[in-house]
Structures are given as C-alpha cells and as structure tokens.
Amino acid sequence: MLADKKILFGVSGSIAVYKAAEWVRELAKAGADVTVVMTEAATRFVSPLTFATLSGRRVYTGMFEPDSGEEVTHINLAKKCDLFLVAPATAQTIAKLANGFADNLLTSLALANRAKMLIFPAMNSNMYCHGATRANLARLKDYGYGIIEPDEGKLACGDEGVGRLVDWETARDALLSAFAPQDLLEKTVIITAGPTCEPFDPARHLSNRSSGKMGFALARSAKQRGARVILISGPTSLKKPSGVEVINSATALEMHDAVMDNYDRADIVVMSAAVSDYRPAKLKEKKVKKGSGSIALELVPNPDILKELGKRKGKAGSPLLVGFAAESSDHLEEGKRKLKEKKLDLIVVNDIIGTETGFASDTNQVSLIDRDYQLEKSPLLTKEECAYLIWDKIARLMQ
Ligand code: C5P
Question: How far is the CA of 303 from the centre of ligand 1 (A)?
Fold first, then answer.
C-alpha cells in the first residue's frame, strides 16, 4: 500500500537516527520511493552512506551542493513528493519549522512543501515537555502537520519518560492513515476478532484456530480511514492497534454482552470473530482427573450474536451488519444462506482449508456477497489488503 509513493524523509540530529535508518529500509522494502534529507547534526550520528544504501538513492545534506542533480534543490525535491516526514524531529528542528526558518535544506524544503507533513518528535522528556516545545508543536498542528506523539520509556540519556521515537509499526500506521481515503470519518465501528474460549474446568477450555489477524487488520485499517474503532477481541497474542478501544472478552457470552453494551454507539458492526457455537453445559469446579475410560462433555448452544443483531434491524439508526463465513465446502451457497438468515448487508466468505487462507495465515482470499447478492472475489491478498477491500465495499454500501 506504500508502493510507488514518493516520500521525502527528513532526518534531524537525535540518537534515534539509527531507528530512522530501519524505517527507510522498511519503506524501500514496501516499494516506496524514498529520498532522504539530513541535517548536519543527523550526519554526526549515522553516515549519509547508510541512508543512501538503504533507500537506493542519493542523500541530500546541504543547500549548496553543486552536483545535486536538481536545478533548485530546496524547491524541486518538495514539489516531487507525495508525503514529507521528519523522523526523528528534534526540539531544534521543530522550533525552526514552527517559526518558518529556512536555514538548512530540511527546513527550506518544509517551507516549500505542499504535500502532507508528518512530524515524529524524539528527544529528552524535559525538552519534550518544555513549554517552548509544546507551543511549537501546537503551532505545527495549526499549520496542518500531523504530529505523532513519542512513546514513554527508558531514554538514551538514561532518563525515564516521554520522548522515545515511536516504533515502525506505529509510524507505518500514521503513513497509511495519511494516504488512506477518509471515508469512515465520524463513523463508529464495532469489530469482533479472534476465537472465543469456553471453559469446562479450571484448566481447560474449548476453542478454535482463529488467530484474530483478520479482525485486527480490519481494526487498524478502519482507524486509518478515520473511524472510531471498538475492537472486541477474544484471546489472541496480537499487539493492540494504536488509537483503538480494545475490549477483551473470553467467552461467547462475554462477547455477546460487550457487543450489546456498545451496539447503540455503532454505525457499522463487523463480526469477524470465530464465536464458538457451543459451550460446556457446566463449568466443573475442579480439574477433571485422567481416567482409563472416555468421558462425555455436554454442550449447550451459545447465542448467535449476529443473528440477534439482524433481528433488531430495521429500526432507525440500526448499524450496517457485516458477517464472516469460514467454510470448508459449498462456500458461496453457505455464505448466501447466512447473509439471508442473519439479515446482513455483507458477508465475507473464506476458505479455511487452504494453507494460504483462513485461520492463522497472513494471507486470505475472500468472496464478498452483498445484500443484493452481488458477488466480488478477491485474489490472494495479505489480510491487511483484504481489510482495505472489505472497507472499500462497506464504504460503497454506506452511501
Ligand atoms: O453461522 P456461522 O457461525 O457460520 O456464522 C458466522 C458469522 O456469525 C460470523 O460473522 C460470526 O462472527 C457470527 N457468529 C455470531 N455468534 C455466534 C456464532 C457466529 O455472531 N454464536
């Protein structure tokens, strides 16, 4: 999703420059066209050669380089970019940008730039919390710059506090948000993800192979497209997406209650969780002991959350409903049946038998069937790309 994007990457002089080198590598790997501009101080931490090698392009450091290959470097580089980011952005560079200084190539380019600008501050926490820096950042926000607040933690100077450059994952989310269509702005979406676990004794439960990857990808991409996201998740080992409200629910009954508690706030509900259809009738107080014979476990049905939401449909303001169907045979027929039975606006059907689709894999191939039985089949995509495709379809259905 970052392929072929022209990114001007400003680097100012903080110890976090070495992390920026990794970001340049990631961007180049994603197919982006990255041009790095460094302040003099930044070149003291990491050599321009490192950035040139990682970006595969020449690095710019000075205003008056005779062989820059650009006629008016400080204007032309800015004219050619789709996005300009500064990482790490030091207190000094932030102050210059806030006050319109153009005393080096990076700050001159920032003044000449008309593309979206993202600032990733990194500095000692006292410097970051100082009134001057706060005022400068507020001013940059007024200019329309995106400011990605640094993380808290142990700093290179030994202090503990806010000021660490965010990790690549957070930076990537910010970049994707800058490029994503903002078609979910002002919308509240509930997304369920992962498996549910149905305990039958203090040590054991029944569950399924869902990893939560598809639901988490849906949550991250909805956030990137401007939505307020409530992610109701069964147990997974995935990292919480930034800027998303996460509600943990272990069992189907807990997930049911969490969905119903938040239903009135939602414009869209996407049930991507693999909810257990049954739960053990009784939770044994003590761990079941091993014996020589077989044992029988009585199961009772769980409520079908989505079906219940479908029944409520029709009232003014009811949210758009999206379901998932994980199938191992008769995919499309089963999908259509569930779409009708649960009164959905859209069902996403996927094959759980293939090795590159369904549970736990990083890729997926989906068939989307909408309320008018229009079918759209995707090629094999990453789950993130699949999530974008699903939101494209939902945005069209919302119109
Ligand atoms: O009928 P089936 O379980 O295959 O339907 C799958 C869809 O219904 C998924 O979107 C899943 O999240 C949802 N579901 C539910 N409550 C259940 C079981 C499934 O909301 N108890």
Answer: 9
Q: Whose CA is nearest to atom 6 of ligand 1?
A: 325
Which atom of ligand 1 sits closest to the CA of residue 334? Answer: 4
Q: Judging by DSSP bridges, how do beta strands 146-147 and 116-121 pair with one another?
A: parallel
**Which residue's CA is the closest to the ligand 1 atom numbered 16?**
304
Residue 361: its pLDDT value, please?
84
Q: Looking at domain 188-284+295-398, which of 3.90.1070.10, 3.40.50.10300, 3.40.50.740, 3.90.1140.10 is its CATH number?
A: 3.40.50.10300
Give 248 Cα–ligand 1 centroid separation in angstroms: 18
Tokens 């549970």 label which residue? 359
pLDDT tens digits, 274-292: 999 999 999 999 999 988 8
The pLDDT > 70 percentage for the chain reads: 98
- Which residues does ligand 1 sit against, CB inside 6 Å? 192, 252, 271, 273, 275, 277, 302, 304-306, 323-325, 338
Which of 305, 322, 368 for mutating ligand 1's site (highest number of atoms within 8 Å of CB)?
305
pLDDT of 71 strictly over 90? no
Residue owning the nearest CA to atom 9 of ligand 1: 324
The residues that are catalytic are 157
CATH number 3.40.30.10 is the correct assignment for the domain at 6-179:
no
Q: How far is the CA of 118 from the centre of ligand 1 (A)?
A: 40
Q: What is the pLDDT of residues 201-256, one digit of tens each?
A: 999 999 999 999 999 999 999 999 999 999 999 999 999 998 999 999 999 999 99
**Helix residue ranges per DSSP H, 13-63:** 17-29, 40-45, 48-55
Neighbours of 265 (CB within 10 A): 12
Distances (CA, A) of 66 to 70, 73, 269, 342: 9, 10, 58, 68
Task: Determine whether 248 is exposed, middle or buried from the number of CB atoms within 10 Å of its CB (0-12, 13-18, 19+).
Answer: middle
What separation in Å is there between the alpha carbon of 341 and the centre of ligand 1?
A: 11
What global pTM score does this model have? 0.91
DSSP states along 283-296: --SSPPPP-SS---
Same CATH fold assignment for domains 6-179 and 188-284+295-398: yes
Provide the pLDDT for residue 68. 64
For the chain, give every domain's residue range. 6-179, 188-284+295-398
